[in-house]
Amino acid sequence: MKKLKLLYAEDERRIRKDFVIYLESMYEFTIYEADDGEEALELFKKYEPEIVLTDITMPKMDGLTLAKEIRKISKHTKIIILTAHSEHEKLMEAFDSNVVNYLIKPINRKKLRESIDIAIETCLQVVMQKDESLISFSKCATFNMLSQEYRVDNAPVHLTKSEADLLLFLCQNQSSTFSGEDIFFHVWNDLDKEFNVNSIRTLVKKLRKKLPDGVIKNIYGGYYQIKI
Fold first, then answer.
1. pTM for the whole thing?
2. For 125-136, what is each residue's pLDDT tens digit?
3. SS3 letters for the chain?
C-alpha cells in the first residue's frame, strides 16, 4: 500500500522542524511543509495529502480558513487543528469544518499521536472503500462510484447529473443489459414522466463521447451494457 501523505502548516519553523523529526521517527509518511496557509493550500491542491496538521494562527491565510478551503475540495481529508487559543467560538468553528481533533499548544506528543492514529485508521478505511469503488475503463480513464468522479489522465471530467447517474447505474450492474426504458426510469426516477426513447439515445451519445471507445455497448433489441 502506498505511503500516506501528511501536510504540516506551521509558521514557527523551529516548532515545525521538531515535530517533523518526531513524525518521521514514528510514521512512514510523506510529509509536506508549509510556512503559511496560502502555501499550504497550494501544496494540498498539488499533492492531495490524506492528513493535514495545521496551526490556526498563520500569515496570509489562517488555519480555519485553510480547513474550510480544503473541505470545498475534499470531504475525506483528515484535519487536525493546532491552536494557542482556547476560545469557545474558535473551537466550535474548527469542528464546523469537520476536523479530527484540536490540540492546544504547547502540543502534547502523546495526544498528537493519538489524533494521528485516529486519522490514519479512518484514512485507511476510506482508501479501501475507494479501491473497491474505483472502475477503470482504460489505463487513463477511471470512475469512482463513491464520489461519482470521472477522471481522464488524472484530471476530472465534468459529467452532468444524468450522465453520472447513468454511468453509476451501469457500473453497479456490469453483467446486466438494460433497455432504454430501464435506463429512462432509473436516471430520471419520475413515474409521471413519459418515456422518450430519444432522450435515452441523446444521453447515451453524450456520455459515450466522454468515455473511451466501446465502453457502452449496444445489444441487439435496443439494449445497453457497459464493458469494463
1. 0.56
2. 665 555 557 788
3. CCCCEEEEECCCHHHHHHHHHHHHHHCCCEEEEECCHHHHHHHHHHHCCCEEEEECCCCCCCHHHHHHHHHHHCCCCEEEEEECCCCHHHHHHHHHCCCCEEEECCCCHHHHHHHHHHHHHHHHHHHHHHHHHEEECCCCEEEECCCCEEEECCEEECCCHHHHHHHHHHHHCCCCCEEHHHHHHHHHCCCCCCCCHHHHHHHHHHHHHHCCCCCEEEECCCEEEECC
